[in-house]
Amino acid sequence: MTSERPDMSVQLGSLRLRNPVMTASGTFGFGVEYAECVDLERLGAVVIKAVTVEPRIGNRPPRIAETAAGMLNAIGLQNPGVDAVIAEKLPELASYDVPIIANLAGESVAEYVQLAERLTACGYVAALELNISCPNVSHGMMFSSSPELTGELVAAVRRVTDLPLITKLSPNVTDIVPMAVAAVEAGSDALSLINTLLGMSIDVARRRPMVGNITAGLSGPAIKPVALRCVWQVYEAVQVPLIGMGGIMDSHDALQFIMAGASAVAVGTASFVNPAASVEIIGGLEQYCCDHDLCGIGSLVGVAHS
Ligand SMILES: Cc1cc2nc3c(=O)[nH]c(=O)nc-3n(C[C@H](O)[C@H](O)[C@H](O)COP(=O)(O)O)c2cc1C
Q1: Domain residue spans of the chain
Q2: CB 200 within 8 A of CB 215
Q3: Fewer CB within a 10 Å sphere, N or C end of the chain?
Q4: Which residue's CA is the nearest one to ligand 1's atom 7?
Q5: Active-site choice (37, 122, 134, 230)
Q6: Catalytic annotation on 295?
Q7: Contact 243 CB / ligand 1 (< 6 Å)
Q8: 218 pocket-lining for ligand 1 (C-beta < 6 Å)
């Protein structure tokens, strides 16, 4: 075993992370809610809940339901709106030494551009993640279902920000690769794969859909094979770093994503089961590198393809 500590840092465009593990948007609030039980400064980055131009109260309840190997959610992008996020949420999170990645959700190109301008100018944010893949609002997957619209949106946002730009893609498409290629050609520095899969559940006692929105996004271990397949396919098609997510519960899962081609990973549903899951996964990845005499985590990215 090597006595040197492995280099866990990763590069996403111009953004360097101390390690490859971040939180998945919408599963970690605005970060500070978790500060009592998680050392935020251990994380590679905190990805905050989706931000919209106007405040949103979200969908009608019930908004979540448990499934055999995961959960359904239809939160509906509840958030206080970009003004309040910048004034009330980001300053506190920025007092921690951890990069903040903002997740943006708009209903039009103009709204995404407005969000990108505001969040770039505020100075708290290290990168922007374009959420073009939310299955729980009427317009949520419009952009991620078309390479043309994906490209148009990314190009428009690219023109107004120098921050690293990450595009978050949807698995709810026939072929994810053309969307990935379009996002990269339009200037995306990295891609997040994947958002939730569209699903539903029926409450037999009430004879009604379990979730108020009827359909909802499936996450957790149930979607891991789908997410891994998406990362695998996109890795073979583009040259930018990928952030893999979907059912990562422990460091073994995270390693699978890295070996499939992810440079970084995001932990979502696992944080509801164990708030410290993300930090434990960092420890597990470091231990794997030590056990296998690796000088850095980077040497594992995409190894399963060779
Ligand atoms: C309750 C909940 C809320 C979510 N909210 C957002 C969101 O606001 N923006 C976004 O891009 N993804 C959102 N997601 C999707 C996650 O970021 C992630 O892509 C997905 O859950 C897959 O990862 P997981 O299986 O580890 O949870 C949400 C997921 C859950 C479970």
Answers
A1: 10-58+77-200+220-305
A2: yes
A3: C
A4: 26
A5: 134
A6: no
A7: no
A8: no
